[in-house]
Fold each of these.
Amino acid sequence: MTALKVVDLFAGAGGLSEGFRQAGFDIIAGSDNDPDATATYGKNFPEATVITGDIRAPHVKARILAVARKADVLVGGPPCQAFSQVRNHTRMIDDPRNSLYREFVDVLRQTLPLAFVVENVTGMDQMGVREQIATDLALEGEYVVHPQVVDAADFGVPQTRKRLLFIGVRAGRGMEAPVLDGSGATDSITLTRFTGSRKPRYQVVVQQHIRSLRTGEALSNFDDLLAVTAAEAIGDLVNLPVGNRVDVLPYSQLSKPRSAYQRAMREGADKVLANVQVPRINADTELRLNGIPPGGNYRDLEEELLERYLTGQRWGQDNGSGKLSRKHFYAYRRLHPDIWAWTLNTKGDSVYHYSVARALSVREFARLQSFPDRFVFTTDPRRGPIEGRHDGGPAHSRYRQVGNAVPPLLARSVAASLYAQVATCLQKQSRRKRAG
């Protein structure tokens, strides 16, 4: 096996790096401006150089370039903040709001690795900038670039999460930019709301053609990893105590794994499981959750449960209407056990459990993102505001780190599609050197 080296820019907690490591790559460095995210990265990638700071700062850029010159593959998810170029004809790379994206392209230009992967949200694709980005990354013919939209749930992740990928390989080296081919589960399986009975209910519906039936069978089989449900992902953690301040529990206090996915997530873990704190919820929220069926949301609440305050406890801002405001609606969403989760965001109240009236722990978020249990989320031990830190405190930071990450199983599929091509290219280079 050829040792292939990866550098991860805008790495966050390290979802891309974890997937590439699982596929056999050596992670030699990761960088990010958020000190809490790089604390997590350093804990989980002790073999890598961790660079904390703004890539636009000359001393940070110099460190990044030094390690990136050793990389065979450069990966990252540079933020692209400006979509106005669609209207005013300014190219993305020239817009000052996209300076971080420009820095990624510059590192690529200065280091010229054999391959790269850039991931970002599909909103960029919807704004019509796919070709601009592909052209920027091609570096005037240095790379062959293939853009594609993929959904993580089609690659064994128990969460639908669409991402726009740009995979590039050096031109003239005998490599091809790979096209990922997932299960197709998200195109053939849906969660449908039925209202014929007294209370709404949600049911998984599978389209009637061969590939759909195959993924439908996988979804109902706890030993099949082709498609994974929420229950298969977190069912062994259902009894986590609410409001517990201790963030670790021994596995001996948890249910035994019931699915192939749960067993896979536990591989390589210690005797204790980290990131298991479950936030407290107020009495009003508990009442509403008990009125929402699995898979449901605020639309399923009966009229009396839409009152702003149910038990007399005052919480949050009162809009004066006596009813829940629109901003509360999307906080009341329950998973369905028989299908994957919707796209997680960075907030702990963006999803609630399917069978108990509670929020999810960071570990359950991580399971739905396909992070293995050995991957521990932490924060920089320094207190208060520090450069690059986001507001909200340590607990929010951990949810944020997980919610912003690339699912490792998706990243592993990307990495596996690249490994053989890049390894073969390096072997050919080595043989030519020996022959010369």
Amino acid sequence: MIFLKSESEIEKLREAAQLVSRTLAEVAKKIEPGVTTGDLDRIAEDFIVKNNARPAFKGYGGKKNPFPASLCISVNEEVVHGIPGKRKLNEGDIVSVDCGVEKNGYFGDHAYTFVVGDCDDQTKKLLKTTLESLYKGIEQAIHGNKIGDIASAIQKHNEANGFGVVRDLVGHGIGKSMHEDPSVPNFGKPGRGERLRTGMTLAIEPMITEGCWKVKTLDDGWTIVTADHSRAAHFEHDIVVREGKAEILSTFDYIAEITKNEILETHYG
């Protein structure tokens, strides 16, 4: 079931999304060679709790195999759902940090892929293209369009640049639950799928690989990696479907202030 949000609900979603944005910026301050993914997770959890919210990922998945951390941190060939721990980051790593919070009964959930130190031109192209495709998808998230218009825009931009588009993982609706209908794939045909309506709130999140689009899940039951061990990038925003132009509830501005990241500068420039 798809829930159209009132303006008061959208404001609560914005508050949750902005807290995620600020949490990602706190993490950005500490991303450097030698830091462990577990260190980053503790920073995020402390910040979320201090801001009177709950880490939405921690314990997610039920009693059988609950996710054990507040962040999903996925390095290099890890696409999403990496579990933070003792792993140290190295110069040149690319690191997807995905964060979710629940605040006042509403959820925020978005992600950014960082570079540790310097990286080569191919890495910059992967991140830049993935980020660009996120905004191309968002441009299609307007009243009267279809889910397939978002999906097709993301797919075409990445494949035109030689990258793989993961099929097994999708974006989603967001609201009083972290994952609501509809699913928002990153591949598809324009004019297909659910019709978009004003007040729909979506988490759009391209997950893009340097090589083959196929993925597999590791024995921990969570970490998803590329089948060919190529590197992957992941960016995510929370948005509201509107007439004429989608509204973005989350922001990368806090990250841009800290990192002075060339990838972000390319977009904002």
Amino acid sequence: MSAKLKVGIVGGTGMVGQRFVELLDQHPWFEVTGIAASAGSAGKTYEESVKGRWKLSTPIPEAVKNIVVKDASKVEEVASEVDFIFCAVDMNKKDIQALEEAYARTGTPVVSNNSAHRWTADVPMVIPEINDNHLEVIADQRKRLGTTTGFIAVKPNCSIQSYVPALNALLDFKPTEVVASTYQAISGAGKNFTDWPEMLDNVIPYIGGEEEKSEQEPLRIWGTVENGEIVKASAPHITTQCIRVPVTDGHLATVFVKFENKPSKEEILARWSQFAGKPQLLELPSAPKQFITYFEEENRPQTKLDRDIERGMGVSVGRLREDSLYDYKFVGLSHNTVRGAAGGAVLIAELLKAEGYIQAK
């Protein structure tokens, strides 16, 4: 491996930005050399900018403490010093779209944790083990943006990681209907219990916009590339409920599924245990060795026990059984700020580098 690629984190002071900082510390391919945030944080060292609001249990990595935070709106200045950026800003959709496209037009690849471009037709929204072929639309996106090296790629919503991989392994059996309820950690809202004491001993049966994302984004993941655009799949039909629960990290899903060609339980378990994708084939640094882990115990997976499986990059499944209304039901679990957010984006960047889309400037 040649010298590490220089990485900028735009939105580096928020919870997901902090997770990027943590995950990229000592990364074998990437080195954080730039951090950008709002004008209020600009000019401070990173340590100063997150003082009193560092949300992770691990300490701030020494390598980034003295990096001087830049103003994220000064696109040319930030982009000139890095090979690519991760973006995790807290802004309205139109402003995020404009900011990410501005970075891409400087010739800088953008790997986004934001939702703003998830439905832009020529922007790939990727779970690397599932739809790496969607990266081919980058060529058309570059033409639209007028750049030969810049582009935007995004990761999907954190909640769908808990059940889409398990369903994806069974697509050959043609699932037709899916009912999923997700029980989502407070870190998905960028909070911890210090920030949000109202969540202690409480459940909130509503997360704004989450159910639409959870029902529609899997269909884009399973879509096809046609004429330089991603066209979403028409099946299965998915309906969801998304609930906020008093858990720090980890999104758990209860899933009911009906198939056109009903598999046996043994066939399902075999598909889950054998399922792997391009990250496993390429042995990417952040890729879980075992993408889907099935627990035989009746009381697993549990959020507290199992969210960190495969360094938070694996998906856990359990309680597979036949159902009286649907064909099968099961429980899925994923770490929402690792696999579902920063870690998933880092894995996308590793895939993009391995496939030649990201290179040193």
